[in-house]
Write a structure and sequence with these properties.
Blueprint (H helix, E strand, L loop, with lengths): L6 H7 L2 H10 L17 H8 L3 H17 L2 H14 L2 H10 L2 H6 L3
Amino acid sequence: MARHYSTKNFFRQIPNALLGRYFHEQNLFKDLDFTTMKEGNPAALFEAWLLLPDNQRNAMDTVFREIFEMSCEKGSTAIIDEAEFQFNDNDFAVFVENYPLCLIITSGQ
């Protein structure tokens, strides 16, 4: 089945904690409290997102699309395979235990 990307749906699928971390690292939306936003319903975030200049949104949307494309079973497998190749055995184990991003993203599918 074909999957269709939209920023609004992407925000719905990503846990608020990860969204907050990303945007705070970008020095954006520091006034939004991601901990009180209802999971899967980031209406306030999307409203703030629409107020950003097009060039800023487009640059971040490119990153979000890449994440979205990797958020399927094949993408998750590719991430795990690449991590296994890049890390030594101990580092790979730490990656799998402490950075389950593949599981977080694909759990919303």
